[in-house]
Amino acid sequence: MKISLRSLARGPQDAAVLCCCVLVGVGWSSGVAVQAQTPVQLVASMVANENAAAAAHERYEYLSNERSGRTGGHLWTERVVETAPGRVRLLTAVDGRPLTAEQAQREQERLEEIREHPEVFIKREQSTRAEEKRAREMMDVLPKDFLFEKVRLDNGVWRMEFRPNPDYTPSSVEERILHNMAGELEIDARALRLLHLEFHLTQDVPIGFGLVANVHTGTTFVSDREVIEGRWHTMHVATQVRAKALLFKTIDLNVDVHRWDFHPLDHEVTVPEATTMLLRDQVAAAHTAVAGGAPPLQ
Questions:
Q1: 225-229 long-range contacts, Cβ below 8 Å, gap at least 24?
Q2: CB-CB neighbours of 241 under 10 Å
Q3: Is residue 295 part of a domain?
Q4: How far, CA to CA in Å, does 189 sit from each of 9, 34, 91, 152, 160?
Q5: CB atoms within 10 A of CB 253
Q6: DSSP letter string, 98-115
Q7: What pTM was computed for the model?
Q8: Are 297 and 111 in contact (CB under 8 A)?
Q9: Which of 92, 186, 189, 204 could be bridged to 195 by S-S, CB 3.0 to 4.6 A?
Q10: Per the domain annotation, does 296 fall within a domain?
């Protein structure tokens, strides 16, 4: 899994997943037996399940509240349609207020431009998709890099803390960053799916590449997931990446995203189809986004 200044902000697919070698053999609090597994086996099973889910390419339409550099620090409420090349978005509210007629017109024109020239959108999203692919490929390396502590089963949830494995030597910049992470991990014990991941950088990490560069302590990542009607969704992602490089200004990459109102798509939607869906539902989406059912504004 590649951890870069941009991939850290993408989402839970880009999150570090970690493991160690402490044997545990306990049962469900409900009385259902659980096969004894080491934390490394538990996490490896979870990683396999997450990779299988990613390979299934399920797509959704949903609502999102995001505050980030992309939004200029404002809270953007958007309706999102997932496609293979990337997420197509319709802005419906800013800081909890519906768009003005002028803003709504600009959104309509932007989506119409994407519909007419999807190749531009697809090219722009290529780097994002490549980073997500590399993130999944890195998962097999992660079990070597961390030790689990305070592993416990609590009401059907495996909870554990992790820290770097001092016996492991990272071989790349991405691994060096990961190797200085510590945090907490929660796994649904029945489904072996990721529920919660929270990690932070424990010390500054020099990047190199001929430049004096560092990723600083204070870099954090939080992801929360839920199962809704039998489907797993990422409900919340919060990322803060702090880095400084000679020749470049200080980077302070902050993202806080809440998602809700998921609807599965019944086929692989193309980019033009996604824009048509959003344009068709523009008025309804704006009403839904600022009415009941949205999470509290952040």
A1: 225/12, 225/193, 225/194, 225/195, 225/196, 226/195, 227/188, 227/191, 227/193, 228/262
A2: 24
A3: no
A4: 27, 8, 37, 11, 12
A5: 16
A6: EPPHHHHHHHHHHHHHHH
A7: 0.75
A8: no
A9: 186
A10: no
pLDDT, mean of each 10-residue run, the chain (298 residues): 37 33 30 60 87 90 94 95 94 95 94 96 80 63 78 95 81 68 90 90 64 62 92 90 55 81 94 95 58 51
Number of domains in the chain: 1
Residue 2 included in any domain:
no
Residue among 240, 238, 242 at smallest CA distance from 257: 238
Q: Which two tokens stand for residue 146?
A: 């961390």
Q: Which residues of 61-85 are buried (b: 16+ CB within 10 A; e: fewer)?
A: bbbbbbbbeebeeebbbbbbbbbeb
Question: Which range of residues forms the domain containing residue 179?
Answer: 7-290
For tokens 């999470």, what's the residue? Answer: 295
What is the spatial distance between Cα 282 and Cα 265, in angstroms, rounded to a whole number?
A: 18
Contact between 10 and 135 under an 8 Å Cβ cutoff? The reply is: yes
Residue 297 lies in a domain: no
Q: Are 166 and 179 in contact (CB under 8 A)?
A: no
Kindly state the tokens that stand for 263.
Answer: 């609807």
